[in-house]
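Can anyone check this?
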Amino acid sequence: MNCDRTKLAIRESWPAIIRREFLRQSGLGLGAVALAELLAERSATALAAAKPIAADPFAARPSHFAARAKHVIYLHMVGAPSQLDLFDDKPALRAHHGEPCPQEFIEGKRFAFLRGHPRLLGSPFAFAQHGAAGHELSELWPHLATVADELVVIKTIHTEEFNHGPAQLFLQTGFGRLGRPGLGAWVTYGLGSETRDLPAFVVLITGLMAGAGSSLWSSGFLPSVHQGVQFRSSGDPVLFLNNPPGQSRDDRRRVLDTLAALNREKLADAGDPEIATRIEQYEMAFRMQTAVPDLMDLSSETRQTLEMYGAAPGQASFANNCLLARRLVERGVRIVQLYDEGWDHHSNIATGLPNKCQQVDRPIAALIRDLRHRGLLDETLVVWGGEFGRTPMLQTDSGDGTSTKAGRDHHKDAFTMWLAGGGTRGGITVGRTDDLGYSIAENPVHVHDLNATILHLLGIDHERLTYKYQGRDFRLTDVHGRVVREVLS
């Protein structure tokens, strides 16, 4: 009986308890609703204020500080060139050629293909010093040697990845997995475009596409307007750029005007920047119908210029792409990336590497010389390199250190890249590797440091160039990176 009375008393008290709890909770809830409404109003005001910017995602934007460079031409040698046979001469490695490598080279280390206890491989190529600063260059660079004083050679680049696809992603996006924006996307996100008739970010490819594919020039989680645009070297430069059969340019203009009007209504209603991107990309494609054919027509170049590059109108080649890169920056394109495949020399380095250098040596030197002659080099940063380097150890089936099929495995801990123009101090070398070219002896430069330096030369503070995604701020250099001050002029 007492138990039943207690239960009845509790039930009778529920309405009062519930009312008090409701009032207490609803006080907080109503306050939260009011705050949400206030924030929504402020957000709407901010969105309205931002619409002029959203309506023109290609608009040029101010840099964080005075820029030394306006443009970048990035020469990515896909497959990873051997720094020990091109830029980092090691007489001691030649002297110990064929001997087992030091134990510490392999103990606790991971390699892509090396197994057992490999032998050392000295370079079969002669080196000489060039330019006033005495850059060490292999005999495989006879043309590049003529512009040695323009180069800043960094011998101590290191990365986190030792397989091609992840290392290419790490170099270009700052992360060894898919999904992040590439360097070019970050640059155009930070600076916008200087041209109305061409994309701000253009990609040119010779050979097969890199292992990481189009993710290397992806916009990732940035607005899609910052995606790189691949120009093809033969056929239509950009797919679907031409009007369909039977449709005139005036017909195309009327369709785009009607479509743009509908998209602007949707933009005003939703405020989605991707709608503004769509409007501008349609307009860009329309303007490119005139601009791109003129750009790609190399026959307008002088005979002397074509010979200097080794270019031939109508053909697909790295030489043509170097000349196109110069024409692109002349027209205001912000960043041009050239990918050249075929540098993965696990074997036959004695024949394969000379063949590749012969394809790129003359056009690279011509590009630097041409930019200088036209007054463009001081405002155009040229970057050369691969996704990692090569080991001083021999990779071959014979294992005796004498095979003519000898090659080198992947090496992430020390390799060479170089810069030219764009506010750099030409004629200097940064960093030094040990006597066998395996480890960094002084002044290491991480890939994040390299990217921080590229952004700095463009007037961008790499720590301030961020984008909020999935609840946190991201940047090209992750949470690392320093500007390599030694390379600055």
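Reply from J.R.: I decoded it. The radius of gyration is 28 Å.
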